[in-house]
Specification:
alpha/beta; Nucleotidyltransferase, domain 5; 9 helices
Length: 331
């Protein structure tokens, strides 16, 4: 029996819909929100309003791109957590309404679980067990994946996420939002060893990035006017090198502890060119088999929700209509 799933992602400021048939992504459409740029960050209320405006055309586009009619859908999936509660509510209520109207099963998906399983979309995918370094604006984790629905967090940040460190450091450098991609852009033109910043020493496989941000702040406060403009490329390269070095050291430790050499990255920061290159180099050096999602599946997208929902459908993990989205949720 063929399984067709319509998935909706609305956890932050992207409205996305995807159609998945038997574990293959047929369409994946994303509407970005530019309204937040002038505020230097995502404004939750504006994000919610934009989702309301975007969700119908986005779902319609995903269905038409897949040449799929609503009557062919076997289940409706949506992001339940974590995220901005107003944004999550838009996707959740839309998915519930479709589920009720079509009399089709509802599947609630955890956003971070979906980022990890985005690695299963490509034909060249990891086999189980594998390790996944999940790096986004709100999360930094190392996860041991034993099966699609058997995921265990073995390391995580105790304060800020790596993506947050990128964005907040970019703000210190006077770069516009979103600053993380700009740091990546300028870093490619700079010397990563020009400036030295703090690398917090945290036990086991956990991370910390608050000290790095403080280190950059204090360093910049000591400099003369015009220093940032004259050294922007080198500053970006040095910051990016430090963040990636912290991540790679912990990932190497996780491989050594678990013996698992199938290694993936996931999350919005996995689009960073420096991180992608570093993982490939580590893999070549230590004999790991590395996997990196295509750029389309790194940032928030409904395809990762769809592939996760496919495995939940096979396991018959359905949700009732009283399931509620939550801003924060462990898994």
């Amino acid at each position: 029996m063929s399984i067709t799933i319509l998935a909706i992602e609305s956890s932050c400021d992207e409205t996305s819909a995807s159609v998945c048939v038997d574990g293959k992504i047929i369409s994946n459409f994303i509407a970005n929100q530019t309204v937040h740029e002038k505020y230097g960050g995502v404004v939750p209320e504006l994000a919610s309003r934009a989702h309301i405006q975007n969700i119908v055309p986005v779902v319609d586009t995903a269905l038409s791109s897949a040449n799929c009619h609503l009557s062919a859908i076997d289940a409706i999936a949506f992001t339940q957590a974590p995220g901005l509660i107003g944004s999550l509510l838009v996707g959740a209520q839309f998915a519930k309404s479709l589920s009720l109207a079509l009399d089709k099963p509802l599947i609630a998906v955890h956003h971070m679980q979906a980022h990890i399983l985005a690695n299963l979309i490509a034909d060249d995918k990891p086999s189980f067990p594998f390790l996944c370094l999940t790096v986004s604006g709100g999360h930094t984790q190392i996860v041991l994946a034993k099966a699609p629905l058997d995921l265990k967090v073995i390391g995580e940040t105790i304060d800020d996420a790596a993506g947050e460190a990128f964005d907040k450091t970019a703000k210190l450098l006077g770069l516009p939002y979103p600053g993380g991609p700009l740091i990546d852009k300028y870093a490619q033109l700079g010397d990563p060893f020009k400036f030295k910043f703090a690398e917090p020493q945290i036990p086991e496989l956990n991370f910390s990035f608050s000290g790095l941000k403080t280190s950059v702040l204090y360093f910049l406060q000591k400099q003369e006017h015009g220093f940032i403009e004259n050294n922007l490329n080198d500053l970006c390269a040095s910051v990016q090198f430090t963040i990636i070095n912290i991540l790679m050291k912990k990932l190497k430790k996780a491989v050594d502890q678990t013996g698992v050499k199938q290694v993936c990255i996931a999350g919005g920061v996995s689009a960073n060119s420096g991180l992608r290159k570093a993982l490939q180099q580590m893999g070549e050096k230590y004999g790991w088999q590395t996997f990196i999602p295509s750029f389309e599946y790194c940032t928030d997208n409904a395809a990762m929700i769809a592939i996760t929902a496919y495995y939940k459908f096979l396991a018959e993990e359905f949700s009732s209509l009283d399931v509620s989205p939550t801003a924060r949720a462990e898994w």
